[in-house]
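User: Myotrophin. Structure?
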Amino acid sequence: MAGQARGAEWPTPAPNSYVVDVNVELGGRTPLHYAADSGQFDTLAFLLSKGANINATDRHGITPLLSAIYEGHLTCVRLLLSEGADRNVKGPDGLSCFEAAGSPEIKELLK
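Assistant: Predicted structure:
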């Protein structure tokens, strides 16, 4: 039978199925931050396909895009930009994404 709460009904999850919050914070950061920070392109793409908040800020005010920029992960930066990441954010140091980029290739993407 379906679950009930205050008159609402929702389907009971199938056996061996799980509901996962892709925006849950751990250590003040989301899974998207960790994936962007470590250059995990496939994980980044998967999380985005599951509705991860592309412009989430961590406890320092850093977005996944800034994380990827700081670490020089070109393919991750390209993916985040193509999926609509805000390129106009500034880091906690006040630098724009463009100013924070150390790579000429990343700077070119941010123009």
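The domain at 31-110 is CATH 1.25.40.20 (Serine Threonine Protein Phosphatase 5, Tetratricopeptide repeat). The longest helix spans residues 41-49.
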